[in-house]
Structure formats: C-alpha cells, structure tokens
Please model this.
Amino acid sequence: MKQRIITAVIAAALFIPFVIYGNLPFTIGVYGLAIVGLYEILRMKGISIFSIPGLIATLILVAVLMPNDWAMQVEQMTTYSKYELLTIAIILLLAYTVVVKNSFSFDEIGFILLGSLYVGLGFYYLIATRDAGLEYIIYALIVVWTTDSGAYFTGRKLGKNKLWPEISPNKTVEGFIGGILIAVICAVIFQFIVPLNVSWPYFVIVTIIISIFGQLGDLVESAIKRHYSIKDSGWILPGHGGILDRFDSLLFVLPLLNLLHFVQ
Model:
C-alpha cells in the first residue's frame, strides 16, 4: 500500500501539470503514454513493438491518435487522410503474412488492429476531451479515481458477494455499488464548485453510467490479462503495474463521455 501511494503521488505530480497546461506538451505526453500502452498490450501476445508488425501497429496508433487539426495538416502535406493511412497499415499487415509464409497469422493481425484501436481511441479521446475544456478532464478523473477508491474501501469493509470471480476475484458487488455512490457524491460536489453546462438529472445519470463503465473498463483489462496469464500489463508504475493498469477505466470513460455528447 505504501508503495502504491508513493507512486500515485509522484505520477499525479507529473501528470496533472500537463493536464492543466494542455496544448502541445499535453498531446505529446499522451502520445508517449499511448505508445507505452501499445507496447504493453503487444507484449501480452509476444509481439515486439520493434518488429515489423509492431512498427505497423505504432503507425496505426499514431494515425488514430491524431487530433483533427494535425490530421488536416498531414493530409495537406501527404494527400493522405488518417483513414487512408489506416488502410495502408492494414494492407501492409496482410501482405506481411504472405512474406513470412504465415508464421505471422491472420489472428495476430486481428489482435494488432483491435489492440491498437483499444489503446488509440481511448487516448485520442483524452486529447479531444482536454481540448474541449479542462473541467471535463477533471470531472472524468474525479469520477474514475473516486469510483476506484470507493469500490476498494467499500469492498474491503462490506464486501461479501463476489462481482465477477472468473475475471477479478477480489471485486465485490458491495464495492461496485459503493464505488458508484462515492463517485456520484464527489461529482456533485465538483458540479457545485465548477458547474458544467448540463442539467442536474442528466449530470447524475451520466455520472452513474460512466462510473459503471469505468469499472467495466477495469474488468475488460483484467479479462485480457487473465486470458494471457499475466498479473500486470507492465512494470513502469511500481505498486500499480503498467500504463494500461492505470488508464483502463479512462479508456472506456472518455469515449463514452463524448458519445453521450456530455463533452461540448
């Protein structure tokens, strides 16, 4: 626990200034986080990010992550849109299976494409949400962090019924519900201090939804790790694991906030 707290404090001290400042340093920082996340998920499958498939996966990630203004500049310079770059990457992956006589298979192509999109889309919406306003990022972080903490402490104190033991043996129904309640309370306090331009009923409903989906994002990553028989996605954050271990909830929450048109 002590190591987790120390790592969390140091990571927050490094991450929060970038979030507050935004702009180019934030976007570059998110690219760095996403590339580490891609490295972690490829490693689960035994694919090196420095291999040809790994480099193509990085190309996919870079294209997915491009903010709209960057994508327009790239298109003006190269005549290729980000979607055409993705098409090129897919063609290259398919051609590679032939070059290596199927030692790199169609299944691995599917893993690379879905893995790159899983990481890339989540971090893309981290950039897009910050561009929409600092208050939306703070709101998302508050909901995710308080859900996580609320679920942990409620589960330890009151937890009796396992939520999904096949995926994450330590999570409980009581912790799941407690995480949602704590997140709603903290989000409501935030709304009083920094009002977002939404009605109160909609605000509470969205908070409940993204608290649930934040926990679902955590379970999804747990399911992936369990499938590949690993404990943590990486080692970069002592006591916490890897980048995906810390950002798994946000990878679900941020796209959902935008799909719900909560971020304006």
Summary: Residues 179 and 188 are 14 Å apart (CA to CA). The longest helix spans residues 200-227. The first strand starts at residue 162 and ends at 164. The two ends are 38 Å apart (CA to CA).
